[in-house]
Amino acid sequence: MNSPGVSLSIVVPVYRSEPILPLLVEKVQQEISQLGLPHGFELILVNDASPDQSWKVIRDLATRYSFVRGLSLRRNFGQHNATMAGLHQARGKMVVVMDDDLQHPPEAIARMLAALEEGYDVCYTHYNNRQHAIWKKLGSAFNDWAARHLLGKPRGLYLSSFKAIRSEVVAEIIRYDGPYAYVDGLILDVTRNIHVVGINHQARHSGEGNYNFRRSVSLWLKMATSFSILPLRLASYAGFLLSAFSLLMIMYVIVQKWMYPEIPAGWSSLIATILLIGGVQTLSIGMLGEYLGRTYLKLNHKPQFVVASRTWVEAA
Length: 316
Fold this sequence. Notes:
Layout: E1 6-14, H1 21-32, E2 41-47, H2 54-64, E3 68-73, H3 79-89, E4 92-97, H4 109-117, E5 122-127, H5 134-150, E6 163-166, H6 167-173, H7 183-190, E7 194-199, H8 213-226, H9 230-259, H10 267-299, E8 307-310
Parallel strand pairs: 1-2, 1-4, 2-3, 5-7
Antiparallel strand pairs: 3-8, 4-6, 5-6
Domain Glycosyltransferase 2-like: 9-139
Keywords: Cell membrane, Glycosyltransferase, Lipopolysaccharide biosynthesis, Membrane, Transferase, Transmembrane, Transmembrane helix
Transmembrane segments: 234-255, 267-292
């Protein structure tokens, strides 16, 4: 991690946000300039191989504003990997991570930084008036439940993408070099000294959100298989319970056949049992394959991100 040179770093993963970026920079400058930070701040915009002209806009903004630093990745690595790329470049004693769509109000940053000043390691935000689609709300509720059991997330803590982190915690987070980064899981591995502030959910300035159902499932699998072995344990428990159930059923069938020889063979129940056990076995093998596949890719040094270009010159 670079030596701290500014008071605050703001990391923003960028994807399909060409028309939003100028207003985002203006609003961030307007809010942060009122804080009177002794060493200033930097806004790190990480272009995650956006197919529009976001990178061109970022370069123009970096020319106009001295606090803007642009980073472009060679291909689309996903929001969390792009965030990790920005965290590697952050020089601030405090770091804020936020989205690029202006649904995260920059005016909330002051309260988040105040929480860090009070001694908290991380400050998350929680929507007071969430305006997402129903399927996103249901998915978020499931993700919250899964995070409590897989990551040991404290009850009531919403793992928002809008958060403030102390530089000491960031230094621990970026030590992770695996290809499938999940920033919130890394945070919970480092600290539980976490605070939460409420914010109002703003309307997206333009366009539509980039998270669809497929990306949400991929993020859940990343959380489940990168930071917990609970799915493997559940597969073991399921195998044990099915074996015990099968043994009881065998004993029941033997007794029934002995007491009532005229009972015909139950082909339907036999097929149903085979399909049930086969389904559990296939699910368990698939889960095991997911773990082995991620291990294989990590051992073969699959990159977490690859930087294509920067708007600044690296020091020799």
